[in-house]
Amino acid sequence: MPQDPQEPQLPPARGPVSAAVQEYLLGAGPLPDDETVARADVYGDDLQLALYIGYELHYRGFAGVSSDLEWDPGLLRTRAALEHRFLSALRTDTPAHDSVEDALAGLLVEPVDGTGVSHFLSKEGELWHVREYAAQRSLYHLKEADPHAWVLPRLWGRAKAGMAAVEFDEFGGGRADRVHALLFANLMTDLGLDTTYGHYLDAACAEMLATVNLMSLLGLHRSLRGALVGHFAAVEITSSPGSRRLAEAMRRTGAGAAAEHFYDEHVEADAVHEQVVRHEVIGGLLAEEPHLAADVAFGIDVTGHVEDRLAERLLRDWAQGRSSLRTPLPSEIHHIS
Fold it and tell me: For residue 126, with 0-12 CB atoms within 10 Å meaning exposed, 13-18 middle and 19 or more buried, which class applies?
């Protein structure tokens, strides 16, 4: 089978569920049984990696894995079981607001004394922290906006037009050199990181896998279109102030011009996107389908939940002077050309 140069390598397994999924993809064994899936920690490395691998077949796939397996019935049944456990846990564990308005209001207020990752990086983070953060986030940013594009065929009218307008900007507004995924790759080059798609999948922590898995979960199910819109709103509304702090971190640590540009670009663009998403995407969706209000609120709230879990993991590791990655990065390399 010819190998597509864009297909990443399958990462090493992290437990019996992900090992069985990998063996099945390579034609070397059966899928995990129900008991094995049920025993896996829902937020742990094994289940989250298995789910990530299943979703990645809808993006670029993996080297040595047949593209035909994207719609393999057995694999989809296993993925559905993993999704059910993940979504059930998220619905149980996510602090919920009573309405979309309340959920949005929580995003629009910047705390005076913020304690999140972007606050830490802007004020006291070192270059090694910035590099680790970029390596973790590369799982999403090297396919930035792709998971959200799944929702476009499921929207119409104002919601579709607004969503398409924002996605158009994310994909460079018709210019290949301005595609946000490419801008992030340029950021990674400034930081001496490998820009190969999927390169840091094995190194990324389970909490990072969960944030990307959430996007794919919401994007790939029509029944969750309201939650995907809520997720997208949470990302866009919090992006501008967070990106401003991250741009400051890039400047303060001497990360490089491309690293600064990536976040400077998001400060301006996402301030505009916030208005479009709130008034056109959410407003348009709920004007047509008001029954999806609870799902939109859930999408906003669950985004905060998984991001908070990731932030806690990163800040806990960094406070103890250890890497947040499963495999620490090599010594710092400044501004590779």
Answer: middle
